[in-house]
Amino acid sequence: MMVDGVEDEEKWLAAGIAGLQQNAFYMHRALDSNNLRDALKYSAQMLSELRTSKLSPQKYYQLYMRAFDELRKLEMFFKEETRRGCSIIDLYELVQHAGNILPRLYLLCTVGSVYIKSKEAPAKDVLKDLVEMCRGIQHPVRGLFLRSYLSQISRDKLPDIGSEYEGDADTVNDAMEFVLQNFTEMNKLWVRMQHQGPAREKDKREKERSELRDLVGKNLHVLSQIEGVDLDTYKETVLPRVLEQVVNCKDEIAQCYLMDCIIQVFPDEYHLQTLEILLGAFPQLQPSVDIKTVLSRLMERLSNYAASSTEVLPEFLQVEAFSKLNNAIGKVIEAQADMPILGAVTLYSSLLTFTLHVHPDRLDYADQVLGACVKKLSGEGKLEDNRATKQIVALLSAPLDKYNDIVTVLKLSNYPSVMEYVDSETNKVMAMVIIQSIMKNNTQISTADKVGALFELIKGLIRDLDGAAHDQVDEDDFKEEQNSVARLIQMLQNDDTEEMFKIICTVRKHILTGGPKRLPFTVPPLVFSSLKLVRQLQGPEENPFGEEGSTTPKKVFQLLNQTIETLYGVPAPELALRLYLQCAEAANDSDLEPVAYEFFTQAYILYEEEISDSRAQVTAIHLIIGTLQRMHVFGVENRDTLTHKATGYSAKLLKKPDQCRAVYACSHLFWVDDQDNMKDGERVLLCLKRALRIANAAQQMSNATRGSTGSVTLFVEILNK
User: Fold this and answer.
1) Torsion over CA of 563, 569, 570 and 575, rounded to 10 degrees?
2) What's this model's pTM, rounded to 2 decimal places?
3) Which among 31, 80, 416, 592 is least buried, having the fewest CB atoms inside 10 angstroms?
C-alpha cells in the first residue's frame, strides 16, 4: 500500500510540474509580448496546479517553490506595467476576476506587493485586505502555503518604524496586528490538520505537521524583527496575544513547538522582564507537552545570558528570577503528577546550572534546588532509568565545575543525599569525578570533619555498596579507581600534627571497611602518610614526654602496627613485611628501640609463617638484611639476636646460589662504615668463608647432575665482596 501511495504521489507531482511548466511557458510568451490579458490567463491556469489535495506537504512544497519562482517574474512584469502607465488600482481589481479562489489570491498577493511599493495606498490597508481575503482558503496545506507566500512578500513592506512604508503614529500596531493575525490563522490551519482523516493515520499526520511547522514559526521570527516592538509592546501586546493562541489551541505538538519558538526568537532581556507571564502559561499547557525540554531551554538561555557579562546580573536580582523559576518548576511538577523522574531531574539540573551562573555566592539557593530534588527522588527509591541517572550525574557535577572546590561543595547539606539515590555504578562514576576535581584543582582538605564528609561522598569506591558483588567488576577499572583513592589519601595534609593525626584516624576508619580486595591499595598510602607525620613530630620543638592525650610518634606507631595487621586477612604477607620494615626504619630515626625491635619481630614472624614461595623468600631476606644494616638504634644484645636470625634464614634458602648470595650479603651486618662499634672483621670473614663453602657445594652438585662444573659467577661475586 505504502509503496503504491508513494509511486502515485510521484506521478501526481510529475503531472503537476508538467502542467505548471506548460502554462508558465505560455505566460512567458505573453510577458515577452506585453500581453497582460494572456499573462493573467496563463498565470491563473499555472497556479491552478496548486489546488491539488493529493500531495504530501513535502511534495506540495516542491510544486509551490516552482510556482513561487514564476510569480517573482510576474511581479517584475506588473512593476513594468505600472511604469508604462497602467493603473495599479485597476490591476488590483483585474486579477480578482480569476475563476478559482486559490489562483486569484496568489495573484492578488503578487499585485498587492507591487501596490504597496507604489505607495498609492497605505501599506496597512493593503495588508489588512490581503490577510482578510486569505481566509477564503480553509484547506490546511493549501492555506498554510498561501499564507506563507503572503508572509514572504510582505516581510520587507511592513509599516514598521524607520521603514519607507511607515504610516501614522499607530504604525507599529498595524505591522504587529498583520503578523499576529496571519500567525493566528496559520496556527489554526496547522492544528486542524491533526483532526482530519482516519485515526489510523495519526502518525503520518503528525509527521506531515512537523514538516510544516516552520511555516507557522516564521511569523514569530518576523515579529521579533519588527524594530518597533520594544519591551513594553512585547510585554503588553505581543507575548499575551501569542501565549493566548498557544494555550487556547490545546494541541500538544503546537504548544511544544511554539513555546520553544518564543524562547528562541525573542531577546534574552525580554524573557527576563516577562518571566512571570511566560512561566504562568506552562501549567496551562496540555499534560502531554514535554515541558521539561522547553523550560530547560529557557533556563539555559538565561544562564548563558547571565554568563555573558556581569552587568546583567542586577537585572536577575531585580526580577527575582530564581524564586520565580523555582516556583514555576514546583508547580509544573505538582501539576503533572505522572511526570517521569527524568523530567523532574532534568528541570532541577537546569535550575541548578542557572542558579550557579546567576547567584554563585548563594549556596543556600543551590542547596534548596538539591533539597527539592531529594524530596522528589525520595518517593522513587533507587533510580533504574539510565537517562535519569545521567542527569543526576550532570546535576551533581555542576557545582564541582562551577566552584572547582570540593570544600565549598561539602557545605551543600543535600549534596550527599542526592548521591544516595543512584546505583553503585553511578556512585563510583561520581566519586571518580569528585577525586579528579580535587586532583585537578589541587584542593587542600585539611580537617578531619571535611575528610569524613568527603569519604562519605566517595564511599562507592571505598567499600561495596548494598552488597554489590565485585565478580562483574573489570579488573583494570578497579585498579584505576583504587589508585585514585590512594592518590587522594596522599593529598590530605595539615601542618597541625594533632589535626593530621585525626585525619589519619578518620581515613583509617573508612578504608578498613573496604574489604580484603581494596586494602593492598589503600593501606600503603595511609602508612606513608602516617610516617610523614612521624617525621613532622621529630621536629626540633618536639616535647619528649608529650602532654597527656597529645600525638606522639609512639602513638602513631601503635596505630600503624594495628593497620598493617589488617593485611594478614587479605592475605598480602609480602606487602605487610615491606611496610613493617619501613616502620622499623622510621622508629630507628625516632630513636625508639623497643618499637623498632617490635616491627622487626613482626616482619620475622611473617617471614617464617606466611612466606613460603622460594622467590618471595629471597626478595624478603634481602630486604631484611638491607634494612637491618641501616639500623643504629639497637643495643648489642638486640642487634645480635636479629642478625643471628637473618644469617640463619639465609642459610636455609632452597637453592644453593640463593643461599650463597644471602650469606655474603649478611657480611655487611658486621661491618658498618659510620659506626665504630660495628666493625667485626672476624665475623665478616666467617660469613665470606661460609659463602665459599656453599659455592663449592653448588659447583659439586652441578658436576654430579649435569656433568659439567658450571659457571664461576658465584666465586667472582664473593671475590668482589
Assistant:
1) 50
2) 0.80
3) 80
